[in-house]
Amino acid sequence: MQLDSVTELLGIANYKVAYMVRQSDNRMELMLRQIEEKPSVCSGCGKVHHSPVHSVDTVIVEDLPISGKRVFLHVSKRRSLCYEDERIRTEELRWLRGRVTLRFAEHVYRLTSITTNKEAGWFLGLDDEKVYRIDKSILEELSLQRLEKVTPPRHMSVEEVAWQKWHKYLTNVIDIDSRKVIWNHQGRGKTVLDKFYHKLGKKGCDEIEAVASDGAQGFLSSTKKHLREAVIVLDHFHVKKYLNDAVDTVRREELREARQADNKELYGILHCNKRFILMQNTGTEKKTTMLEKLESLNERVYKAMLLKEQFLSVYAAGDRKAA
Question: Max alpha carbon distance in the chain (Å)?
């Protein structure tokens, strides 16, 4: 079979068959080359970058069969620097879906729509797990296409949720005014939240007035980059954590000095097994007693506790003016 004929038969835009790698009774492997070299599309941010090529990898992907033979294509994929997150990323080829071509994935999906994954795998010569992964990727894409277009919120909050063991996270974006999750994505950090802001575009980002978030540097960095005029509000829980951490730092410093000075009374109050009483937000009897002792024994820790309580009173204020 002539290579030009095979190239025409494959019909992959801007690619031609360079040579036949190997061939058997039921299998055919072909090396593809780009006809005209074009800038690579970054798999991280989806943009076209003109950065120098870092390295080139060759992947083997399965395509639709020809004359009863399974067809495998050897395709070169460039790796280059992404200007968004400054990481080396492999280029994205829109006609590929993982280790298969997009049209082969759609062929698998059509089969699984009328039969089981096991039977579809038997017919195509694939294992059940591979059929499941291909089918799942198509279903996920179809579900995303059916989602309503994201309307830019005036006030939003962003948070990460652990949905599985071994650090499996999901990032949720909530419209505070409507109290609805309007967008989510697997993963966390700056790169994930950048995807949401890119989806809104510059015009949509300009409509956002305030963003509530925890103190995660990735979320803060992404928000500051895309929403230069929006107010960033740290959530109540993490503000309390920062305040408690500050008080605990002072407690440890004074505990060390009390130990060196052999001040047993102060050491007994500041010991680590009593720190949870100091960190309590409610005015329990034990905490009140400890504060009364600290007032006379150690002014520094006592003042740190008072500053923490005074700061938290902002959240109990009835309105912004009172706060």
Answer: 95
φ, ψ at 284 (rounded to 5°): -75, 165
**Count of residues for the chain?**
323
CA distance 323 to 307: 15
Q: Which of 43, 94, 96 is nearest to 72 (CA)?
A: 96
Instruction: Please tell me the total count of domains within the chain.
Output: 4
Instruction: Give the CATH number, domain containing residue 187.
Output: 3.30.420.10
pTM (2 decimals)? 0.51
Claim to verify: residue 295 and residue 312 sit in the same structural domain: yes
Residue 106's domain comprises 95-147
Asked if residue 90 and residue 24 are part of one domain, the reply reads: yes
pLDDT in tens, the chain (323 residues): 588 888 888 999 999 999 999 999 899 999 999 999 888 888 887 888 888 888 999 999 999 999 889 999 999 999 998 887 788 889 999 899 889 999 999 999 999 999 999 999 999 999 989 999 999 988 888 876 666 678 889 999 998 888 777 778 889 999 999 988 888 888 888 888 998 998 888 899 999 999 998 888 888 899 999 998 899 998 888 888 888 888 888 888 888 888 888 887 777 777 766 666 666 666 667 777 777 777 777 778 888 888 888 888 888 887 888 88
